[in-house]
Write a structure and sequence with these properties.
0% strand
């Protein structure tokens, strides 16, 4: 079962009230994801990615995979 909720952070803490369907659950997995990155921050991260050797290797590998089928006719 999945439950998703955006919470307000106060004093570096969140309070999460689970819905009634979770009443019998003994444990749950909580994933914290910062939802509020600005567009400028995302663009900055993309600019850094083009300098990352591992990222560049991955792109080159994908290009090689598609080179063989790019010349096929439909």
């Amino acid at each position: 079962m999945t439950f998703r909720q955006i919470c307000t952070v106060r004093n570096n803490q969140i309070v999460l009230t689970l819905p009634p369907s979770f009443v019998d659950r003994q444990s749950v997995t909580v994933i914290v994801d910062d939802q509020f990155e600005t567009k400028a921050q995302k663009l900055s991260m993309l600019k850094e990615a083009v300098k990352d050797p591992l990222f560049l290797e991955d792109i080159e590998e994908v290009q090689k995979d598609f080179n063989s089928i790019d010349h096929e006719s439909l």
